[in-house]
């Protein structure tokens, strides 16, 4: 008889794409590793794939969890609430079904705003905050996002994301790289690839609902600055690309001043995606931050006192007031 082929069992610690149904919707997430839990939250029109260069290395020391937000990636795209607060609740619910009580939250772009919202809504679950080119620290945002938030986007996006339009855009931008207002080649290539995914109607609808929850034609409408003082005692790391033209690098200074005791790491040669441009440095900086800080512990009585005192940190001197959002 021929010898039976040996079947290898899948590695339960490997970072793999997995699925769970929560509230009747399929949620996709990447998970693997063991140890203290790190929750990675991607930006708008993106997916957990954005972390593919850093998750395998980090999974050697930590449990890494990187969901596709509802309306993104391989998660369902229903007619639903796509606000930052709803996304934060979705993160809590995913962690609950995975039996994970506490996490260090790493959020990129929109995901940074969701990470801040998660820390605000569920402080008892948040051990540390890591904001990567995070939203919510100023009004300024790339003009294309402001345009996409306009009332005509439903009519224009199907044409703008079609295959012919995508091909023309790639050709034009190869001839005139600065035409899109993004001169970092890695950022431009990645953003073009992400917008290609908006050809699907349900993805476009989810994108517009998400965008309009945080951006209008004047810029970002949601701010973390009025409640950032509540993060006192929560170890916080900011990572930003100096060449970021999507969420301008000037907002790193504002966020750093507004978040008590935060650390700021600027990637001089990076744009909006430092975890793409220099994944080894990204991992090293995150490792050092985790090794040199202790997890926050939530004390409800202390939280109440801080809330009663209620003193938001003013933007640093010299920052254009028009670059700082107002409202909540």
Question: What features would you highlight for this structure?
Answer:
328 residues, alpha/beta, Rossmann fold, 2 domains, 8-stranded mixed β-sheet, 37% helix, disordered C terminus
Question: If you had to describe this structure to a student in words, what would you say it looks like?
Answer:
The chain has an eight-stranded mixed beta sheet with strand order 1-2-4-3-5-6-9-10, with helices on both faces. Strands 7-8 form a two-stranded antiparallel sheet. The chain is α/β, with parallel strands linked by helices. It has two domains: 230 residues, Alpha/Beta hydrolase fold, catalytic domain (Rossmann fold); 74 residues. It has twelve helices and ten strands. The longest helix is centred in the first third of the chain and has 14 residues. Helix 2 crosses helix 3. The radius of gyration is 20 Å and the shape is globular. Helix 3 links the parallel strand 5 and strand 6.
């Amino acid at each position: 008889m021929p010898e039976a082929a040996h079947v290898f069992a899948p590695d339960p610690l490997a970072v793999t794409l997995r699925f769970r149904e929560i509230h009747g919707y399929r949620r996709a997430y990447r998970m693997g590793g063991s140890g203290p839990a790190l929750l990675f939250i991607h930006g708008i029109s993106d997916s957990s794939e954005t972390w593919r260069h850093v998750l395998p290395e980090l999974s050697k020391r930590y449990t890494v969890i990187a969901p596709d937000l509802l309306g993104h990636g391989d998660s369902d795209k229903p007619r639903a609430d796509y606000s930052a607060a709803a996304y934060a609740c979705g993160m809590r619910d995913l962690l609950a079904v995975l039996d994970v009580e506490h996490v260090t939250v790493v959020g990129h772009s929109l995901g940074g705003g969701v990470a801040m919202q998660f820390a605000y809504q569920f402080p008892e679950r948040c051990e540390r905050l890591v904001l990567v080119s995070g939203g919510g620290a100023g009004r300024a945002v790339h003009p294309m996002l402001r345009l996409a938030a306009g009332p005509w986007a439903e009519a224009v996006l199907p044409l703008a994301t079609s295959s012919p339009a995508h091909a023309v855009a790639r050709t034009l931008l190869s001839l005139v790289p600065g035409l899109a207002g993004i001169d970092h080649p890695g950022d431009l290539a990645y953003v073009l690839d992400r917008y290609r995914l908006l050809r699907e109607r349900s993805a476009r609808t989810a994108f517009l609902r998400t965008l309009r929850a945080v951006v209008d034609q004047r810029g970002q409408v949601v701010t973390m600055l009025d409640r950032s003082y509540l993060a006192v005692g929560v170890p916080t790391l900011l990572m930003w690309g100096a060449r970021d033209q999507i969420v301008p690098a000037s907002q790193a200074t504002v966020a750093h001043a507004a978040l008590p005791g935060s650390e700021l790491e600027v990637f001089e040669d990076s744009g909006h995606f430092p975890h793409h441009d220099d994944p080894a440095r990204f991992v090293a900086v995150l490792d050092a931050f985790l090794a040199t800080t202790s997890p926050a512990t939530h004390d409800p009585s202390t939280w109440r006192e801080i809330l009663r005192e209620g003193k938001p940190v003013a933007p640093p001197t010299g920052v254009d007031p028009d670059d700082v959002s107002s409202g909540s």
